[in-house]
Backbone:
């Protein structure tokens, strides 16, 4: 970069860079115009040539390679960055299907993306040729091109739907979703069960093991070409926005982080990554010095971006000086204004918190931020009013419509799962049209929705992962920042990290330059999968199918490395064994004796510790209010009177509250009391005793001293508990004597062993210890190898065993089993050839129709009649408990449930789950998650016709947003549809389920952009 340009402010420098790129682009376009008309080398009559001629833009090389693979009759895996245009390959598959008179299914992971892709394909091919299936929406389902969620296609395959006839192409958009631990297995099921003559176009984000995934696809589907592109079509600049120094480049020079390791040019030159901006490094050093000057009290946390709680600065005690301005992150309104000044809007700011997104919009409005012109505000109002015209005014008020509209007219909005779906769709539409300039979003926006921006801002580099706050990974950073830069609009994109106290520029540079995003299978056999596979191909064949899953493919590949390591360690073991040889005798035998002596000595020490703990626990559990006790040693040593026995201490045991002789109230715990507590006397503690009253504490301490004096005068044996403070049982003494006798015998053998007198004994012993440690590691590797080999099939066997126990499967006697062409039977291919083949029972056929995450629990509820006799509203309430999962921060205590029959049904559901959990654990399976009755009462009221405001008020304790409620209602409707399908001959249950669907799918739940 020129020195003069380097000195320009960011806005001017970005404009200069854009001008240079535009001039370079114009030069390339002029050169292309002078060349031949068809520079791809494709014949003019090919479908690719026709498809290319219909596009208003020139195809990239990776797009051409992907399309050529499909036209040549091969499957294809295309892995490319977000916004690179990989969906063009999927659209070519649709083009090929229409051109050859075959069908194409375009699958997506989420309904919103299905709706979006449906609209795009309708615009291109016409409404008569394109349909939509998303579970709750069916539009032209018999069309030659159908967009659907992946779950819908999986269900079609198991049901052997007639819609599969004539299917030629399946596009699996966002196929990297197969790593999702909840929904990922669906992708593998589809890939494994699609007819072999169907070509699959798999579209994935850039993953570091695309070749491995492609090799698996080639194995299970036949010829599959892997096309990987790591080049972003729009270069990405990386910045850090500080409160004092403004916006600074993360890297030195014009660093386009386009591919792994840095810029395209740097990657070709072999450089790892560009140097970090020295100005940022100096800022970090200044901050650290300033923190030390404050005496360490305001020192930032360890570098790397990890904060104490979710990225927030540590609490500043009163009177302590505020950190320097460079340490404070700029306000949200300031960030948006700075981006606007630098011509970097529209922008998406990832906040990682729903409440934070809403608060950000309020802060921008309070700051008077206005990013739209009068004409744009008028257009925003027109779009919003048209989109929300069918929503009643009463619902609009509950949904916060007017505040939401005010933000939109100013060009600012939030986007998260708590918003009404209609509101989210309006935000997406306005943002894509440039009418909304700044969106504050949670990370869910990064998953699939086509909503690119010029800039992406990360407020923090820490997010809550469902269990704890953790640093984001390089893969997550790549996915989030991948939305920056709109192809065909922007000549460059910008990723901006906000400065936070303790931020390490080197750590940020590591996130920005690494592309470690491996695809890991989350495949696992489920009960529904098991009965469908057994009913379709039989148990033996099903095992073989599951052993071809990507999960098993990855496990088998990992086994190769483990086996190589095990062989290497076996060679090392031979060397260690040779080094520990002794000329006087068998040193391996002598070393084994030494290890056994050491193990017994450690076990004796542990047993003594366990016994002391048991004695302490026994003494604490026997305490009651008024006991005067002596704590023999430790931090709480001395005498005290028990105020509360604290028997509800949970896993930590009793935690009694006591008043000491010094009139201090303390709480005892197991780890603070090294020996058994002895009860010396008793005093009376008034029921209205107040531990905060100094006078009451003084009087009780005096009573304790008097009681102790009386106890000392009384005969020793009258002191209650005198025999409880210790003493081992006869059994314990017997065990100790037996262990000591064994130890004495081993020590005698050790002294009598020939190697005991060897002058090099300790040197031999060191080699023997190394051998022992490595032997243990090697045995562990062998166990891991054995555990991974056929691990998926073994899990399937466990699922089948549980289903046999519960009656969803039943054995087929060997004499009734149809023989194979070679004379063998299917059961001969099962482990050991001893198990019978199985078949699906009537209960199992019901389970086949249940695809919910708690599939087996739902089937148990159907079989046990838990749902029988409930009306539509009651059935909706019970169904909600089988799909709802409260967010961790929303979990409350004792949610209210509907009374009467519904309440009893919910109690039965919980009882069935408890029994099922015990059975699953007994079979070595991961237990089904517990039903959550928290939404049952709000769902019951909604199904009875209550208003949205009343229902949300009922759910106020869970902080349930309108969007959350709508999402759970739709999942409840999905399950009710499955219940209706699985009802079989039970007409009453089917009618109740369909009535429940109608009762739930009303009002805000029924609103949809798809007509």
Residues:
């Amino acid at each position: 970069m020129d020195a003069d340009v380097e000195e320009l402010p960011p806005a001017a420098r970005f404009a200069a860079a854009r001008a240079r790129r535009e001039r370079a682009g114009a030069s390339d376009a002029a050169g292309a115009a002078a060349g031949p008309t068809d520079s791809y080398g494709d014949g003019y009559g090919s479908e690719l040539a026709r498809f290319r001629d219909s596009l208003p833009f020139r195809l990239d090389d990776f797009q051409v390679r992907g399309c050529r693979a499909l036209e040549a009759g091969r499957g294809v895996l295309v892995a490319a960055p977000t916004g690179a245009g990989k969906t063009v390959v999927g659209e070519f598959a649709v083009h090929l299907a229409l051109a050859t008179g075959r069908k194409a299914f375009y699958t997506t992971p989420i309904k919103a993306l299905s709706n979006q892709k449906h609209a795009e394909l309708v615009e291109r091919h016409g409404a008569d040729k394109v349909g939509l299936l998303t579970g709750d929406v069916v539009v032209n389902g018999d069309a030659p091109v159908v967009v659907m969620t992946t779950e819908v296609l999986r269900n079609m395959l198991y049901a052997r739907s007639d819609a599969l006839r004539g299917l030629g192409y399946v596009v699996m958009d966002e196929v990297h979703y197969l790593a999702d631990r909840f929904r990922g297995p669906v992708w593998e099921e589809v890939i494994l069960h699609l007819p072999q003559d169907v070509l699959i176009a798999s579209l994935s984000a850039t993953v570091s093991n695309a070749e491995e995934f492609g090799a698996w696809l080639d194995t299970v589907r036949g010829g599959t070409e892997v096309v990987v592109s790591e080049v972003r079509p729009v270069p990405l600049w990386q910045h850090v926005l500080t409160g004092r120094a403004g916006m600074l480049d993360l890297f030195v020079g014009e660093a386009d982080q386009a591919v792994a390791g840095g810029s395209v040019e740097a990657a070709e030159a072999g450089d790892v990554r560009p140097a970090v901006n020295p100005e940022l490094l100096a800022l970090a050093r200044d901050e650290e010095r300033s923190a030390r000057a404050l005496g360490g009290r305001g020192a930032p946390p360890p570098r790397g971006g990890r904060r104490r709680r979710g990225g927030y600065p540590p609490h500043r005690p009163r009177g302590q000086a505020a950190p320097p301005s460079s340490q404070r992150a700029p306000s949200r309104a300031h960030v948006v204004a700075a981006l606007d000044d630098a011509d970097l809007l529209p922008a998406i700011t990832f906040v990682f918190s729903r409440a934070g997104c809403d608060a950000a919009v309020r802060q921008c409005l309070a700051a008077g931020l206005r990013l739209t012109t009068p004409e744009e505000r008028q257009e925003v109002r027109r779009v919003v009013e048209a989109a929300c015209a069918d929503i009643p005014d009463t619902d609009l008020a509950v949904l916060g419509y007017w505040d939401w509209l005010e933000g939109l007219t100013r060009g600012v909005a939030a986007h998260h799962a708590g918003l009404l779906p209609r509101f989210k769709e309006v935000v997406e539409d306005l943002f894509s049209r440039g009418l909304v300039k700044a969106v504050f979003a949670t990370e869910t926006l990064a998953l699939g929705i086509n909503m690119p921006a010029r800039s992406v801002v990360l407020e923090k580099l820490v997010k809550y992962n469902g269990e704890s706050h953790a640093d984001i990974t390089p893969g997550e950073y790549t996915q989030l920042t991948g939305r920056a830069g709109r192809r065909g609009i922007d000549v460059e994109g910008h990723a901006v990290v906000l400065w936070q106290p303790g931020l390490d520029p080197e750590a940020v540079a590591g996130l920005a330059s690494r592309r470690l995003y491996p695809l890991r299978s989350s495949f696992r056999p489920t009960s529904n999968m098991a009965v469908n596979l057994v009913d379709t191909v039989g148990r033996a064949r099903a095992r073989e199918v599951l052993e071809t899953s990507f999960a098993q493919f990855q496990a088998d590949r990992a086994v190769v490395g483990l086996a190589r390591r095990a062989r290497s360690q076996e060679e090392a073991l031979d060397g260690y064994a040779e080094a520990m040889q002794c000329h006087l005798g068998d040193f391996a035998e002598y070393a084994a004796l030494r290890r056994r002596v050491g193990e017994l000595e450690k076990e004796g020490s542990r047993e003594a510790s366990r016994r002391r703990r048991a004695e302490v626990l026994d003494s604490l559990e026997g305490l009651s209010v008024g006991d005067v006790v002596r704590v023999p040693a430790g931090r709480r040593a001395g005498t005290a009177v028990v105020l509360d026995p604290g028997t509800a201490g949970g896993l930590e045991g009793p935690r009694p509250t006591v008043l000491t002789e010094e009139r201090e109230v303390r709480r005892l715990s197991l780890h603070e009391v090294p020996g058994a507590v002895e009860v010396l006397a008793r005093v009376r503690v008034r029921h209205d005793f107040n531990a905060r009253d100094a006078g009451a504490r003084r009087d009780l301490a005096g009573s304790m001293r008097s009681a102790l004096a009386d106890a000392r005068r009384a005969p020793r044996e009258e002191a209650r508990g005198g025999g409880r403070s210790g003493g081992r049982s006869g059994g314990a003494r017997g065990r100790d004597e037996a262990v000591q006798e064994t130890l004495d015998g081993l020590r005698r053998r050790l002294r009598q062993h020939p190697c005991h007198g060897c002058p090099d004994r300790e040197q031999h012993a060191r080699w023997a210890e190394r051998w022992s440690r490595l032997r243990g590691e090697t045995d562990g590797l062998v166990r891991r190898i054995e555990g991974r080999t056929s691990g998926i099939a073994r899990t399937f066997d466990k699922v089948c065993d549980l289903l046999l126990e519960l009656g969803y499967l039943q054995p087929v006697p060997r004499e009734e089993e149809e023989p194979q062409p070679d004379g063998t039977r299917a059961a001969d291919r099962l482990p050991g050839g001893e198990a019978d083949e199985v078949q699906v029972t009537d209960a199992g056929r019901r389970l086949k129709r249940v695809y919910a995450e708690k599939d087996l629990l739902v089937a148990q509820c159907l079989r046990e009649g838990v749902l029988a006799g409930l009306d539509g509203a009651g059935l909706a309430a019970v169904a909600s408990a089988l799909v709802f999962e409260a967010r961790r921060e929303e979990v409350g205590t004792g949610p209210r449930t509907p009374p009467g029959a519904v309440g009893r049904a919910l109690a039965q559901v919980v009882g069935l789950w408890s029994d099922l959990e015990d059975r699953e654990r007994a079979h070595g399976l991961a237990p089904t998650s517990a039903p959550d009755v928290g939404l049952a009462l709000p769902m019951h009221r909604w199904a009875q016709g209550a208003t949205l405001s009343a229902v949300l008020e009922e759910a106020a304790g869970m902080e349930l947003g309108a969007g959350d409620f709508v999402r759970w209602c739709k999942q409840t409707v999905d399950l009710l549809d499955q219940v209706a399908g699985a009802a079989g001959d039970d007409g009453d249950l089917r009618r109740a389920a369909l009535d429940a669907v109608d009762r739930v799918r009303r009002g805000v739940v029924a609103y949809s952009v798809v007509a």
About this structure: The mean pLDDT is 79. DSSP finds 35 helices and 24 strands in the chain. The first strand starts at residue 75 and ends at 79. Residues 57 and 966 are 39 Å apart (CA to CA).
